[in-house]
Write a structure and sequence with these properties.
The complex is a heterodimer of chains A (about 260) and B (about 250). With about 260 residues, chain A is an alpha+beta fold. Helices cover about 20% and strands about 30% of the residues of chain A. Chain A contains 2 helices and 20 strands. In chain A, a hairpin with a 5-residue loop joins strand 7 and strand 8. In chain A, helix 1 runs antiparallel to helix 2. The two termini of chain A are about 20 Å apart. By secondary structure, chain B is α+β, with helices and mostly antiparallel strands. Helix content of chain B is about 25%, strand content about 35%. Chain B is built from 2 helices and 21 strands. In chain B, the strands form 8 sheets. In chain B, strands 17-18-8-7-16-19 form a 6-stranded antiparallel sheet, with no helix packed on it. Chain B has a 3-stranded antiparallel sheet with strand order 13-14-15, with no helix packed on it. In chain B, strands 1-4 form a two-stranded antiparallel ribbon. In chain B, helix 1 runs antiparallel to helix 2. The chains are: A alpha+beta (about 260), B alpha+beta (about 250).
Chain lengths: ~260, ~250
């Protein structure tokens, strides 16, 4: 009864699918969140007869006979499509229109990347994420600044009391990757590089291949509730169908046992 | 009578294989590019029965089948297209395969979930390069377009063309898992009449209703085989009892 275990692989896969969908739905209001998708592939095959092999009479077998043994999860990939923009009016809220990630430094010194542009100032006036990780390259806003302006190209200027001309205090740079889907999610809306993602290419917003910045906006999650709901229905029904395969296999086994009275 | 016993047992074993294939199809109902397994049954080993009476020549009675044999084949029918809007998702419409370079040689797939690796090569979900006409395709940064003929264009500049092949006898391909097929000695040919659709994926060609109906029918055929065995068992039992009484 291979069917029993084959069906179980399908049920496990659908369970994982529901886990991923639940995480997407839980983050429907998380700024900069990118939805994930569980993806499936067919598992190994048991070959009963190989096509092209020779039969007893010396004839070639035109078609083989292979029984598949189920399904497996090939990847849980992130979809980096653009999320919706929401206007917040907050001067330190930034949205990236197009490709690229903000660079932040983790407490252990390594770099992490995020699309979540809800920045704050820390006690020293540095621009930091909601978790206090400083933006890289570091930008410090003078304490006495009366207004902060961040241009589409990433230049940060401040108005200082007694000065008519705004002062440039730094420039935000973005990072991009050959294969963003290869980035590793570490939670808190942060990603780190892996061998699959390739190294970060750093550039100014608006340069070739980089998105531009929008001040006073946040990029919301790219999760679409209707789409997740439909996926949930599909996963649930597929789970149900494979569970029927389990009960059928069970019933057949029972009948075989009943041959001997 | 005992011949019938084995024929019925074989029928039951054959229905088990059918259930294995149905469970496999249902487990992959949401697998991109998946092609369903189909169990076809036939009759094998028909025996010619004859009556012998003393020295007279044998009189044929008729033919008796010794039970079914089954083969598991792949149903290559087109699966439904699902729109994803992702630039690196492609679906093949028509009988064709993408060519994949794996460490153990060339393989073929209809799973169009492509990606880029760290060297910006076009790869499958497992990281194997997908081949263009002249080897792996390296995609420079920019707006990626893939047209119906499989031409890959970045910012309006052609980069290469995806290799799409077909086989004279697709059912002779060996399934290797992970959505891959092996040629098994067949020579791939340039595919004719296959179009590439960017932003779409081909769903599995598994129709749950059909699988469920077959599962039901298979279960009942199995039950019939079981009843046949039980009946034959009972008949032998009666015969032995009768022999005991008359003795």
């Amino acid at each position: 009864m291979r069917a029993l275990w084959t069906a179980v692989t399908g049920m496990i896969a659908k369970q994982l699918d529901i886990d991923v969908i639940a995480n997407n739905l839980a983050n429907v209001n998380t700024p900069g969140f990118k939805k994930s998708r569980a993806e499936f592939q067919d598992l190994i095959y048991q070959t009963l007869r190989l096509p092209g092999s020779t039969q007893a009479e010396g004839l070639l077998v035109p078609t083989g006979s292979q029984v598949g043994l189920g399904t497996r999860t090939s990847a849980i990939s992130k979809l980096f499509s653009q999320g919706d923009f929401v206007q917040t009016g907050n001067l330190l809220d930034l949205a990236i229109e197009g490709e690229g990630f903000f660079q932040v430094q983790l407490p252990d010194g390594t770099m992490a990347y995020t699309r979540d542009g809800s920045f704050k100032l820390d006690a020293e006036g540095r621009i930091v994420t909601s978790d206090g990780y400083p933006l890289q390259p570091p930008i410090t806003i003078p304490r006495e600044a009366t207004h902060i302006a961040i241009g589409a190209d990433g230049t940060v200027t401040v108005n200082l009391p007694g000065q008519a001309v705004p002062q440039q205090v730094g420039r935000i740079e973005l990072a991009r990757f050959a294969n963003p889907e290869g980035l590793s999610s570490i939670g808190r809306n942060l990603f780190t590089t892996t061998a699959a993602s390739g190294d970060a290419a750093v550039g100014a917003p608006g340069a070739e291949g980089f998105g531009t910045l929008a001040q006073g906006f946040l990029e919301m999650s790219n999760v679409k509730v209707v789409e997740e709901m439909v996926r949930m229905i599909i996963a649930q029904r597929a789970y149900e169908a494979t569970s029927k395969a389990v009960s059928t296999a069970d019933e057949m086994w029972g009948m075989a046992n009943n041959l001997k009275r | 009578m005992i011949r019938g016993l084995y024929a019925a047992a074989r029928a039951m074993a054959s229905e088990i294989t059918r259930q294995d294939a149905l469970a496999f199809n249902l487990a992959n109902v949401d697998t991109v590019g998946f092609k369903r397994a189909l169990v076809v049954s036939g009759v094998e080993g028909e025996a010619l029965l004859a009556r012998f009476q003393g020295a007279q020549p044998a009189v044929p009675i008729g033919r008796l089948a010794m039970g079914p044999v089954q083969e598991v084949v792949t149903d290559f029918q087109q699966g439904p297209l699902q729109e994803t809007g992702r630039d690196l998702d492609i679906a093949l419409v028509g009988q064709g395969f993408l060519v994949v370079q794996t460490p153990s040689g060339l393989a073929y797939t209809r799973d169009g979930r492509l990606g880029l690796d760290a060297q910006r090569r076009l790869v499958t979900r497992d990281g194997h390069p997908v081949l263009g006409m002249g080897g792996p395709l390296v995609v420079p940064p920019g707006r990626l377009g893939i047209d119906a003929g499989g031409n890959v264009v970045v910012n309006g500049t052609p980069v290469g063309r995806l290799q799409v092949v077909q086989f004279p006898n697709p059912s002779g391909l060996v399934r290797a898992g992970g959505g891959l097929y092996l040629a098994a000695g067949q020579e791939p040919q340039q595919a004719q009449g296959v179009t590439v659709r960017q932003g779409f994926l081909e769903g599995a060609n598994v129709e749950p209703v059909v699988e469920m109906a077959q599962m039901l029918a298979g279960l009942r055929a199995y039950e019939a085989g079981q009843k046949a065995i039980l009946t034959m068992d009972e008949s032998v039992d009666r015969l032995l009892q009768a022999a005991r009484v008359s003795a």
